[in-house]
Amino acid sequence: MQIIFIIVSAVTLLSGIMVVTNRNLFHAALYMMLSFLGVAGLYVLLDAGFMAAAQLLVYIGAISILVIFAIMMTRRLMQTTETPYNSQWVWSGIASVSVFALIVLVITQVTAVLPTDPNAFMAPSAINDAVLYDALSNMVISLGESFVSAEQYVLPFILSSVLLLVALVGAIIVARPDVEENES
Amino acid sequence: MIEAVSQIPLSWFLIVAAALFSIGLYGVLARRNAVAMLMSVELMLNAVNINLIAFWRYIDPLQPTGVAWAIFVLTVAAAEAAVGLALIISIYRQRDSVIAEELDVLKY
Amino acid sequence: MSETTLTALTWLIPAGPLLAFFLILLFLKRNHTASFITAWTGIGVALVFSWIVAGHMLGIYWQDYQNKTDVLEAHPAVIESSIAWLPIGDYYADAPHMLAGEAEAVGHVSTAVPQYNGQWLSMGVVVDPLNTLMLIMVPFTVLMIFIYSVGYHNYGQPLGTKLGTPNHGKEEPLFGRFFAMMSLFAAGMLILVVADNLLLFFIGWEIMGFCSYSLIGFWYARTYDDPNKIPPRYASIKAFMTTRVADVVMLLGIVYYYRVFGTLNFSQTMNGEALLRAAESPAVGLVGLAIITLLLFTGTDGKSAQWPLHVWLPDAMEGPTPVSAVIHAAAMVSAGIFLLLRIFPLIAVSIHSNPTVGIIIGGIGAFTALMAATMALTQSDVKGVLAFSTISQLGFMVAALGVGGFIAATFHLLTHAFFKALLFMGSGSIIHGMEHGAEHVHDHHTDPQNMFNMGGLRQKMPITFITFVIGGFALAGFPFITAGFWSKDEIFVEAFAAGTEGNFMGWVVFITLVLAAFMTAFYTMRQIALTFLGEPRTPLAEHAHESNGFITLPLILLSIPAIAAGFVGIPSNFLGTEYKSVFVNHFHDFAGAIYYEPLAVLLEAGLVSKGITTPDWSWVPISASLIVALGGLFLGWLVYGRQPLKAGEPDPLLRTLGEPLYNFLLNRWYWDSLYDRVLIRPTVFVSEVVVPQIMDKGIIDGLLHLTVRITFAIGGAMAAFERAVFGDGIDWLKDRFLDLAREFRTFQSGKIQEYALLSTVLAWIFAAFILIINFVL
Fold first, then answer.
1. CB-facing half-sphere around the CA of C191: CA atoms within 13 A
2. Which helix (H) or strand (E) element contains residue C86?
3. A-side interface with C, Cβ within 8 Å?
4. What's the CA gap between C502 and B75, in Å, rounded?
5. What are A49-62's pLDDT values in tens digits?
6. Looking at residue B24, what is its pLDDT?
């Protein structure tokens, strides 16, 4: 299992690195899809099958395609020979590495402070296996019910659908070729 | 699959997520092309989702809270990608450029 | 009226303007009549709802007062309603065992949704004594401004054709957009006022930030021939960017606040127990509370334009005058002070336990009050004077809070909103009249906003004159009959009391504010005399005439509270009379009730220095108040009123102060150029020039260059500083600096990724800081 985890994470991270370093934007987009696939693999390892499916559909199926469209529409300008970076790339690298170091520090601190017993961060083994199995296999049902339950997520759910609608209408208006009307 | 989680410590997932986040951050800060910046933002959002799902699985797997949050992040990411790409295309039409450095009309 | 109805009304207060915004923007913006009527209706409905709710609160107070209950000690009436809308999960260590036991009973295949078990994010509204006062003031002032805007944009005149620039004497073509944005602005302010938690508060705060950006830049196409004058487009960016810096820090404060209290709800955090618990917990302690205070105060510093982030406000005058009125009186700048009032118990604890916090808040307030007052002395732009006086008056409030004067600051916030809105709209009316004169004589080169081009407008614009004098005298604190006198006096009393109780900052604040108040009276008289008295100095003023009813009606209505609002806050022991025998300070009792109990609890625990009390009567503050108000007005009259300026005559102050000092004040103490030269240019220089040089030419060569250039940069900065401070002391260093500037003329970049990098670095530093506090200390 650990080996699977290491392989999946390595794929995710390496293709992530390719996304930000590749000169050819189209290749970068393909690597991005691979990275998303790796993330979906991590979800499978975390027993979140529904999330993995959603990841495949939304990220790989929809967002990546949008990105590739955008790359093709703006392709003319991107010569693959010129540098993909701006003038502050060194500082950006330093900043990113420091952020990473800081987060890792927090993770080690938190894991050092929190667990009073070794199971605290391995909580699943402390739960009755049957209950856990039950909860995980019915996760999609309880998730769906929680989205429409007035006790739980109904308000954020409606709000996010409104957000999506507004964003899509807005995107169409913004990307429309010519605004023929002016306000007077 | 339950045994998968019991063999891998939570911190591993968190560190992978942190690494993906930092890679995305680097892309946002350093890439010249605005589309590439947007792709890096998507990587960062994915890193956040890994965190959410990992915490959900290890700490509170009996309630769908973490997954629900991840779905919301996914929704916002889709909206963000749509609007962001629309803006990039619109800017490209007007200024013939998608290089973030050249888009400095906010200059004071 | 039932509790449910009141709750519903409270929820609906921001809905009117918000709905108006969408209606106008989506359907009505082409129809100017429908636009402004929708906007009026939106804010009108909000006004009715607010006043019903506020009336209920005041009714409860009045009943208590009639029944001789000690109103202060009685628990304040509160209308509260909130919905838990977003489950955010929970970490529960004991739960697994419990759930494992339950599972046996439920059976293996269960599809029932388990009851959600964890924490919620809540959003809600609240009406308490503090925001009741805002609910009385904000919708009324905003409605007046809305009425005024119709006249200001020449409704009914032939349609203008120029988009994005002023159309003198013609109807504004973007009329609908203006009212849409103003409605959204009002909605943001009302959300902020009724919010029961810091997050909703921040949402309203940011809506206003965006609206101020789009409204200051309303005349986006306007340009000036004079390169030193900032056009509206840049002014809006400057306002947005400056407040943004503060907002990022404030957001960190909100995060820390949540971390410490576990909720962002005001009434659950700003009470005695929660603060005691936080102060006594080892993870937070008094230092943690002080840090939260300072982080949130930074937000106020930007929004309420306190030094060193005051630079955006004077330039924000580039927006249309109603925008200035709404930003500088009713809404945006008040929001900053309102935040401090909301978290006052926290501030009280911090300034008591940590003198540094008191020195920072009180010191910044007092310094800003004095600095802005000196700047206002020499301005020639009629709106410019008001802009600086706003900064100065906000400094009064911040300084009052820095010495623990909660009631005084609240009172001044309220009265200032009324008279400053009145003054801004009066100045807009003057400019309108002058522009009419400019149309009449076909003169488009004389600046219609310059006070030295005015004079003699008293006969031409009588209503504007009378209302402006009322507003001006309230600003100056004319004794006994104006609202400004009572509120300013209250601040003096609080500062003086703090001083006599041994708080060093009390004396500093008292003396500084007395000086600032003297200047306030002087520049107010100067403004009135230059504008209205004497003979017209230009043909523009000659042909100016009174504005139409849309403009004069709000002026008349606003001059009522500019006088009357003060009488509710006469100190209970005024003139040494026995407490509450002759005068009753209703304002004190009503507003003070909100924090009476929390402060009493904290006082018992020794965490604050005083509760809500009436300071002992002393003749010193009232004498100071009388002397500076009357003395300043009289001196102003001596210099400017007795013998009004003739056309072409220079400002008498120029001779008195001497040219260097006059220019120093006129150019706003050179803060802008100082920031540009000391902060912005070297930063960009380092990020754009030094770094690529290292990369291109190799490390050693680059390092050499770096050393040389940093030396030059420091030299240049010093030269700039020197020139800024000592007038035109041009010397060798400055020449070197100019050479450098010519070589690398890349200034503030506007590049998004640089801003992103800067934010990353800042966030990293703060995160590391908080980590150190949490894990190391």
1. 22
2. strand C79-89
3. 86-88, 90-92, 95, 98-99, 102, 105-106, 109, 113, 116, 120, 123, 126-128, 130-131, 134, 138, 141-142, 145-146, 149, 151-153, 155-156, 182-184
4. 58
5. 889 999 999 898 88
6. 93
**Cβ–Cβ < 8 Å for C512, C636:** no
Give the span between the Cα atoms of B76 and B45, in whole angstroms. 9
Tokens representing residue A12 in the block: 């995710």
CB pairs below 8 Å between A and C: how many?
89
CB atoms within 10 A of CB C299: 25
Residues C533, C458: Cα–Cα separation, whole Å = 6
Q: Which of residues 745-764 of C touch A (CB under 8 A)?
A: 753-754, 757, 760-761, 764
pTM of the model: 0.81
Query: Shortest CB distance from C96 goes to which of A126, A146, A152?
Result: A126
Contacting residues for C767 by C-beta, under 8 A, at least 6 apart: A102
Residue carrying the six token digits 């488009």: C444
For residue A34, what pLDDT is reported? 93
Q: Considering only CA atoms, which of C332, C298, C81 is closest in space to residue C195? A: C81
Weakest-pLDDT range from A49-58, B20-29, C27-36, C96-105: C96-105
**What gap in Å lies between CA C198 and CA C258, rounded to an integer?**
9
Question: ∠C487-C489-C492 over CA atoms, to 5°?
Answer: 120
Tokens standing for C30?
């082409």
Instruction: Please report the DSSP string for C382-399 in residue order.
Output: HHHHHHHHHHHHHHHHHH
Helix (H) or strand (E) holding A95: helix A89-113
Structure tokens at C171: 């109807």
Task: Name C121's bridge partners.
Answer: C86
φ, ψ dihedrals at C159, nearest 5°: -70, 135
Contacts of C771 in chain A (CB under 8 A): 102, 105-106, 109
> Do B61 and A150 contact (CB within 8 A), yes or no?
no
Distance between CA C492 and CA C400 in Å, rounded? 8
Q: Six-digit token pair at A135?
A: 């909860």
- The interface pTM score, or ipTM, of the predicted complex is 0.87
Specify whether the backbone of B98 is left (phi greater than 0), alpha (psi in -120 to 50) or beta.
Answer: alpha
Q: Which residues contact A73 (CB under 8 A, 6 or more apart)?
A: B89, B92
- The number of beta carbons lying within 10 Å of the beta carbon of residue A26 is 15
Cβ-based neighbours of A67, under 8 Å, separated by 6 or more: A29, A32, B35, B38, B39, B42, B81, B85
Render pLDDT for B78-99 as a digit per residue (tens, 0 to 9): 999 899 888 888 888 877 766 6
Amino acid sitting at position C79: I
Identify which of B26, B77, B92 has the shortest CB distance to residue A63: B77
Which subunits have 3 or more CB–CB pairs within 8 Å of chain B? A, C
Are C109 and A127 within 8 A, CB to CB?
Answer: no
Per-residue pLDDT band for A118 (boundaries 50, 70, 90) equals very low
Tokens of C168: 């003198």
Closest C-alpha among C164, C221, C233 to residue C750? C233
Tokens of C67: 């029944």
Backbone dihedral region for residue C775 (phi beyond 0: left; psi -120 to 50: alpha; all else: beta): alpha
CA distance C707 to C702: 9
User: Alpha-carbon distance C513 to C524, whole Å?
Assistant: 16
* Region C545-558 average pLDDT: 86
Could you please report the per-residue DSSP string of C689-707? IIHHHHHHH-HHHHHHHHH
Q: Which two tokens stand for residue C47?
A: 């006004």
Nearest to C366 by CA among C522, C507, C568: C507
* CB-based contact C64:C596 (threshold 8 Å): no
Tokens of C270: 């700003």
* Beta-ladder partners of C89: C119
